[in-house]
Amino acid sequence: MSNLNDDQDSSILDGGEDRHLLVHDDPSVTHEDMSPLIASAPKKKATGKVIILLILVGINLLNYLDRYTISGILPDLKDVSTSGLDHDLSDSEGGLLMTVFVVSYMLFSPIFGYYGDRVNRKVLITIGIIFWSIFTLMGSFTKTYLQLMVARGFVGIGEASYATIAPTIIADLYPPEIRTMMLSVFYFAIPVGAALGFIVGGQVAAALGSWRWALRVSPPLGVALALCLFFFTKDPPRGASDGHVNAGAANENTGILAMVKDVKQILKVRSFIWSTLGFTAVTFTSGAMAQWAPTYVYRMGDQEGHSISSATASLAFGAVTVVTGVIGTFYGSWLSKKYTAMTLKADSYICGLGLLASVAFMGVAIPSLPYSQVAFWILVFFGELTLCLNWAPSAAITLYVHAPHMRASANAVNILITHLFGDAMSPFLVGLMSDTIHTKYDITSADSLMLAQLLTVVVALIGGVCYLRSATYLPDDRAKAGVVQPLTDYQVVNDDDGKPYVS
After folding, report:
1. Nearest 5 degrees, angle CA 275-CA 281-CA 287?
2. Which pairing describes strands 500-502 and 10-15: parallel, antiparallel, or unpaired?
3. For the residues 228-252, what does the mean pLDDT come to?
4. Would you state the pLDDT for residue 254?
5. 18, 221, 357, 375: least CB-packed within 10 angstroms?
């Protein structure tokens, strides 16, 4: 039997109490050689992985709760009598609060992506979460619109650290056959967190009499989870779950030229480009709807004589988002697992067809509200459900078409593109279109906002086509990523005392 000595290519995976020694491709080490070790080694639960995943999911939940709290309190911010700011806000200024957040978020993502491929990832995330918690809290004490906008910009910097890096940690914890399902657990926090943002924003502001208290909910929870991540988890080696060849992979190139080289290599992956364009349409649509849908429901209700408070509108839209987000995210993951066994193009098809179905539902839902609230909410339900099918499969595409030492950078490029052309501009564009239509054609603010939101339907249609186009290149790009699976069906694992067991 071959000896597992210091010269042999191996790596350690620390995950809570687990330490995994993955034996790399070595033709001299066979399954028969390892049989005595496997037979004598006790089984041990990988609870460390679960702890890391749960903490990351919790932070992601707070991430999106904080991001969309602004949407829940937007009606209060627009009127100087309730906001306490220096002037009434136009629709375009309201949309700009989300835009400035997303702009800083996307601009700093490549920086965190670069370091996420090279240094300890949990340290980067911890620093980022504490940073955004501080500036979220500071935003609640602002006195002018400009101060609030600057505070939201700094919040985006902190959140960039987490969103760029966290999916790569999950990819290193779980092998490809269950990775999409684990990512769906992570990404279900997006719709749930966003919905909680609507609810917390509207309900806390209504209960405590000020929108400022809504911004004070997430900071202490964010700091607590950041400290849990730092003290109770360990950063797994890059590529640990992808097989022997990639275990422990890290990007050793440094400097600006190295970053540019990484980006050039990432942009050569055609399936990544097309799926990223498709997801850009998803963020464009979801960003605009999240920002303006509660306000649209509130305005149209007031216009049609069945008045609904802004808090109730936020609560209703949040409830729909929670249910559709959980069902859609997990169903998209289930479809991916089921149909990838039939075709390696399955993820692209799921994302593309899901987005096109959402186009049909939302295209009818938006103009239906003045005529039937029941029809509106039913159509919105299915529109959001089909939109949420994309989250897990789309994230999986970004990860598995790149080698482990490139994944944080690839995720950063994906964030940059999808937010630059997606939700960085969509809230502002929809608000600007609403203001322009309202002024130029002298129609009500509710009707102008309805027409402006139809822009999201057109963009989503283009995105669906882009996803279907990515299917052409997906199998080849996945193969070129160079992920080599283990030659055997076991992992050699050492506990903290150095004693072997099987994972």
Report:
1. 130
2. unpaired
3. 69
4. 60
5. 375
* CA 292 distance to own-chain centroid: 20
The pLDDT of 223-236, averaged and rounded, is 90
Mapping DSSP onto H, E and C, the string for 172-192 reads: HHCCHHHHHHHHHHHHCHHHH
Using an 8 Å Cβ cutoff, are 303 and 444 in contact? Answer: yes
Rounded CA gap, 325 and 148, in Å?
29
- The yes-or-no verdict on residue 7 having pLDDT over 50 is no
Mapping DSSP onto H, E and C, the string for 383-429 reads: HHHHHHHHHHHHHHHHHHCCCHHHHHHHHHHHHHHHHHCCCCCHHHH
Whose CA is closest to 249, among 262, 240, 261? 240
Between 17 and 478, whose confidence is greater?
A: 478
Give the whole-angstrom CA distance, residue 29 versus residue 240. Answer: 19
In which band, very low, low, confident or very high, does the pLDDT at 39 lie, cut at 50, 70 and 90?
Answer: very low
Mean pLDDT of 415-428: 86
Residues 24 and 244: beta-carbon distance below 8 Å: yes
Pairwise CA distance, residues 271 & 458, whole Å: 22
Q: What pLDDT score was predicted for residue 252?
A: 55
As a whole number of angstroms, the distance between CA 247 and CA 142 comes to: 48
Which helix (H) or strand (E) segment is 90 a member of? none
Listed as own residue / partner, the contacts of 371-380 with beta carbons closer than 8 Å and 24 or more positions apart are 373/301, 373/306, 377/316, 377/320, 380/293, 380/317, 380/320
- For tokens 């897990």, the residue is 392
The one-character DSSP state at 43 is B
User: Which of 19, 18, 21, 20 has its CA nearest to residue 45?
Assistant: 18
Given this model, what pLDDT does residue 379 score? Answer: 96
- Tokens encoding 137: 């809290």
What is the reported pLDDT for 3? 41
pLDDT grade for 253, boundaries at 50, 70 and 90? low
Strand 18-23 versus strand 500-502 pairing type: unpaired
